[in-house]
Amino acid sequence: MRLATWNVNSIRTRVGRVVDFLERSGTDVLALQETKCRDDQFPEEAFHAAGYDVVHHGLSQWNGVAVVSRLPVSDVEVGFPGMPTWGEPAAAEARALGATVDGVRVWSLYVPNGRELDNPHYQYKLDWLAGLRTAAEGWLAADADAPIALVGDWNIAPRDEDVWDIAAFAGATHVSPAEREALAALTEAGFSDVTREHTPGAYTYWDYQRLRFPRNEGMRIDLVLGSPALAARVSGAHIDRDERKGKGASDHVPVVVDLG
After folding, report:
1. Order of strands, edge to edge, in the sheet holding 104-110?
2. Residue 219 DSSP class
3. Which residue ranges form the domains of the chain, and what is each CATH number?
4. Where are the alpha helices (DSSP H) in the chain?
5. Distances from the Cα of 173 to the Cαs of 85, 114, 224, in angstroms?
6. Is the sign of the CA dihedral 69, 75, 79, 83 positive or negative?
7. Could you count the other beta carbons within 10 Å of the beta carbon of residue 212?
8. Which residues pair with 118 in a beta bridge?
């Protein structure tokens, strides 16, 4: 199985690019984040024409997650157990969608941004990650051999080497100790980053501003965390940097993992 994840930054804007990527790359299952549309607005027809089924969770022009697959999809779950809420009135956002494909449990995740260190959204981000860690621990406690892929835009650079210049992030989110500790807690729960060893020095995101992409001033914030059973099946991985090129590109690129 070829599994990929991509923050597409509006599926209606980039549906053509996404379908082209699927066909060109031979991807079987693609987790999408930041689709930025309601369920009834998702352009399913283009994917069906290419031989893919779609499950999507979107509530508005913000957030939104999906799983696109040319293999049968089952056990679709919107949100993980105990997922924190946000807003007034408080409600669960469209940030997590689980589905089982060919025995692999895939979670498409769009972790809250955090905004600034003193912003309430930062604590929401930490709470959200803590909730995910608790849920993930529960999944492995129920079945230690379950192949589970936690994939998506984590809005965290796990190490200093995962940003072009750590000094430029002083006092900012995405690299703070608390965020990194929250992500590391998932490693302690049994999940491992299955792409790092295959993609040394590669980034997955470049801001649209200040010529970040031409200067390769990027960040590695799109990750695939695998349970022990999933990690044991990884035969390779790559980051499709070329998808950041050309007109109408997302500011993120696909991260691709091959499972044996």
Report:
1. 73-78, 96-101, 104-110, 148-153, 222-226, 192-193
2. B
3. 2-259 (3.60.10.10)
4. 11-25, 44-49, 120-142, 177-188, 228-231
5. 20, 6, 20
6. negative
7. 18
8. none
State both tokens at 166: 């750590």
pLDDT in tens, 66-119: 999 999 999 999 999 999 999 999 999 999 999 999 999 999 999 999 999 999
Question: Half-sphere exposure of residue 165, counting CA atoms within 13 Å on the CB side?
Answer: 6
Instruction: Give the C-alpha separation, 227 to 145, whole Å.
Output: 8
Tell me whether residue 208 is exposed, middle or buried, using C-beta atoms within 10 angstroms of its C-beta: 0 to 12, 13 to 18, 19 or more.
Answer: exposed
Pairing of strands 104-110, 96-101: antiparallel
pTM (predicted TM-score): 0.98
Distance CA 13, CA 210 (A): 22
